[in-house]
């Protein structure tokens, strides 16, 4: 398992960094297009038709970038699943489908808008000619109806909604469980969950920002290094905030004799016993007398 994760770490890291590269590239491509004043829907169609090739390319590059999000999320999900039985493997489909649906929605929407704009400009807005005569508001409403009633555009809208919800779930669920098993630090895990919520309300570009720390982690360039759970191959949860390291277990009293614990001391006592004379012998009496004479003398009593 660990060897497989190490082999796939580089492709997953490159894919994560590639997300940001493609998203930025699409923004740069689109920035080179002058859309002018596009407050009116009819003007938007006119501007898109004039720059359809560039805008379609930007959408394709953007869709490719968001599609790559599925790879690092899949890699992180499987790594977390290998370290915890609480993670449901069947949910991997939602994690992967979210970015792919979102990518498909961006590309299909661009082609649908191109077809609508091309037909509208080719007919000089004949479909909304009567509405234009009534005023700009009526014309705008007519053009909006043309766009929303288009089959391809409706499909892209459904895919966009499903993809956004799938991306939200994938980022939150994967980041949360990866943090729980110790694969992500608390900061990165919390960032992933926050980015998931932000991508739903403010758009998918926020998901690309989360790919930066994730890609650096997979490639081994994370400032703090990889958390120990990666090399251990098992879950190593982070201690709860404010939790102290448990005190060391007190040592149990050692049973046994002193000579088993301090053999040198016991050997020294045995040697002293061997040097002493046999009790009751003349040599023993002489030894005792010498000990009494070498001992401390008693103090004399003062009268």
Task: Looking at this protein, list some descriptive labels.
single chain, 14 helices, 303 residues, disordered C terminus, mainly alpha
Plain-language structure description:
The protein is mainly α and about 300 residues long. The protein has 14 helices and no strands. The longest helix has about 30 residues.
- Averaged pLDDT, please? 81
Structural domain count? 2
Strand coverage percent: under 5%
Residues in helix, %: over 70%
The quaternary organization reads as single chain
Rg, please? 39 Å
What is the tally of helical segments?
14
Compressed to H and E, one letter per element, the order equals: HHHHHHHHHHHHHH
Low-confidence stretches: 245-252, 298-303
The tally of beta strands, per DSSP, is 0
Overall structural class, as computed from helix and strand content, comes to mainly alpha
Describe, in short, the structure shown:
With 303 residues, the chain is mainly alpha-helical. It is built from 14 helices and no strands.
């Amino acid at each position: 398992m660990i060897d497989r994760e190490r082999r796939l770490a580089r492709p997953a890291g490159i894919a994560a960094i590639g997300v940001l590269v493609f998203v930025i590239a699409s923004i740069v491509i689109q920035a080179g297009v002058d859309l002018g004043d596009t407050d009116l829907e009819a003007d938007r169609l006119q501007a898109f038709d004039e720059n359809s090739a560039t805008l379609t390319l930007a959408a394709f590059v953007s869709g490719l970038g968001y599609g790559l999000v599925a790879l690092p999320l899949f890699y992180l999900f499987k790594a977390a699943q290998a370290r915890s039985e609480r993670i449901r493997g069947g949910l991997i489909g939602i994690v992967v489908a979210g970015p792919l649906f979102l990518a498909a929605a961006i590309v299909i929407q661009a082609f649908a808008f191109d077809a609508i704009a091309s037909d509208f400009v080719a007919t000089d807005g004949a479909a909304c000619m009567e509405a234009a005569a009534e005023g700009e508001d009526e014309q705008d409403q007519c053009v909006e109806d043309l766009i929303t009633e288009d089959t391809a555009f409706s499909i892209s809208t459904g895919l966009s909604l499903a993809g956004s919800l799938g991306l939200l779930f994938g980022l939150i669920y994967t980041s949360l469980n990866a943090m729980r098993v110790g694969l992500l630090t608390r900061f990165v895990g919390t960032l992933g969950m926050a980015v998931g919520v932000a991508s739903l309300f403010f758009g998918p570009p926020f998901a690309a920002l989360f790919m930066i720390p994730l890609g650096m982690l997979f490639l081994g360039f994370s400032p703090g290094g990889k958390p120990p759970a990666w090399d251990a191959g098992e879950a190593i949860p982070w201690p709860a905030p404010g939790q102290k390291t448990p005190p060391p277990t007190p040592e149990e009293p050692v049973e046994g004799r002193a000579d088993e614990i301090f053999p040198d001391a016991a050997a020294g006592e045995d040697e002293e016993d061997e040097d002493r004379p046999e009790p009751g012998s003349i040599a023993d009496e002489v030894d005792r007398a010498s000990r009494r004479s070498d001992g401390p003398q008693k103090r004399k009593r003062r009268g």
